[in-house]
Write a structure and sequence with these properties.
By secondary structure, the chain is an alpha/beta fold. It has two domains: 242 residues, Response regulator (Rossmann fold); 152 residues, Rossmann fold, CATH 3.40.50. 39% of the residues lie in helices and 15% in strands. A seven-stranded mixed sheet has the order 7-6-8-9-10-15-16, with helices on both faces. α1 packs across α13, α4 packs parallel to α5 and α10 runs parallel beside α11.
């Protein structure tokens, strides 16, 4: 397993200690010029996902600062270049990525997520022979990679695909119902996706697997994307109250409005939401109404000792309300690529297929323990494995984290999986035991 700081101090610092083991790499570095290496990123810096885009940029900036302080990649510093993907979509994202390659000769592009792209990012990476790491969290990445692995050799998804949220959520609810804190009033679950690929894939996975975990789907209601008008859906929920409401829409401002409107006439239902409650906007807009909400993520900074220096550095640099749980994604992505580029002998440049393939081969082989957990590339789809629903070994998969907002004035608490949990589930205040 690669320790990123040890690797960077040796491989990235041209004259660092341990040079005997890396003499060949360092001799090559001395022959190279010290021109900066452009790292591109297509991020939604404006529009409805700007809150995430800002954090994705923060993660890249912090990683670049640390890598450069360690000596850069074989003596060359990193420079971050960002193109705003605004409202996203295939045309905007593809054009943004191509500009990063054409203007800055970027050999790598590290994105957060971009919605509505149909994974066209993979075609841009393939056509230009650059490495592309993204966090779209889509099973369509895996499917596209499988369609032509030789063409899409340089495209990596830095987290598990969204499909695994489905069985993971059902398993969490089943185990919670088996405990003593929550007494499920029935076996019904209501599923509320929004009209986008990510939300619908998760919702379908939950619907299709519900019976296997002992649940009955009482409502499946798709809402617009984005939306903050929850009245009609809440009216249906109140007619037939379920044990749990599962909202797979993910924009934090919309989810906060759901809670405000839900609490006007709450049902005795657990509320589970998708990803959005990890962002500060959820607490800022929802206030006390978000207390008790459960959400999950298959990628996010863990509250463990390993990530503590990152968390502290992130908040010191970007402010006490910054969302390191989001910035951690691109942070890990840049460290993974930089480590692989150093091992492979350099970052290469666009259209240098031979060097890009060398870097991709290292990224496939390495097992990387980052602040989000362990990344190991699934060779069948070139995305991360998910623990515990996809792999049983926590050292070989990224943990599917379940968190609960217990006090909106503080960070959410990690309540599952057990190996990573720091706190226990508490009954939401609207449920009368």
């Amino acid at each position: 397993m690669i320790n990123r700081r040890a690797m960077l101090q040796g491989a990235l610092g041209a004259g660092a200690a341990g040079g005997a083991l890396l003499a060949d790499l360092n001799s090559r570095a001395q022959a190279q010029d010290a021109a900066p290496i452009a790292v591109g990123a297509g991020l939604p810096m404006s529009g409805f996902a700007a809150a995430d885009g800002i954090e994705f940029k923060n993660g890249l900036d912090l990683a670049a600062e640390e890598i450069n302080a360690a000596g850069g990649i074989l003596g060359r510093p990193i420079e971050i270049h960002v193109e705003d993907t605004k409202e996203m979509g295939a045309d905007i994202v593809s054009q943004s990525m191509q500009r990063l390659i054409d203007r800055y000769t970027a050999p790598v592009i590290i994105n957060g997520y971009n919605v509505g792209t149909n994974m066209i990012e993979m075609d841009i990476a393939a056509d230009n022979d650059v490495i592309m790491m993204h966090y779209n969290t889509l099973i369509s990445h895996n499917e596209k990679f499988k369609s032509d692995p030789e063409r899409y050799y340089g495209s990596f998804q830095g987290d598990p695909p969204e499909y695994w949220y489905g069985p993971g959520c059902l398993n969490f609810l089943k185990e919670l119902a088996a405990g003593s804190t929550w007494k499920a009033p029935n076996k019904k679950i209501a599923i509320i996706p929004s009209a986008n690929e990510y939300s619908i894939v998760i919702a379908n996975a939950i619907r299709d697997k519900a019976a296997e975990y002992g649940f009955e789907v009482s409502l499946f209601e798709t809402v617009p994307f984005p939306t903050n008008q929850w009245g009609p859906t809440l009216a249906k929920l109140r007619q037939d109250p379920p044990a749990a409401v599962i909202v797979t829409h993910f924009l934090p401002q919309d989810l906060a409005q759901f809670m405000v409107q839900f609490l006007a006439q709450p049902t005795d239902s657990l509320i589970y939401m998708q990803y959005g409650p990890s962002l500060p906007a959820f607490r800022e807009i929802g206030g006390e109404s978000v207390n008790g909400v459960i959400y999950s993520t298959v990628v996010g900074c863990l509250p463990d000792d390993f990530s503590k220096p990152f968390r502290e550095a992130y908040r010191a640099k970007f402010g006490p309300s910054s969302a390191y749980i989001t910035g951690s994604q691109t942070y890990d992505g840049l460290w993974m690529w930089a480590t692989a580029a150093a091992i492979a002998g350099g970052p290469g440049e666009p259209f240098n297929k031979e060097q890009a393939q060398k870097i991709a081969a290292v990224m496939r082989r390495n097992v990387y323990r980052g602040v989000n957990g362990t990344y190991r590339a699934d060779p069948a789809g070139q995305s991360a494995y998910c623990y515990p629903t996809q792999v049983a070994d926590p050292s070989l998969g990224m943990p599917h984290q379940f968190l609960q907002h217990q006090d909106y004035k503080t960070d959410p608490k990690l309540i599952a999986p057990p190996l990573y949990a720091t706190d226990s589930f508490v009954l939401p205040p609207w449920i009368k035991a």
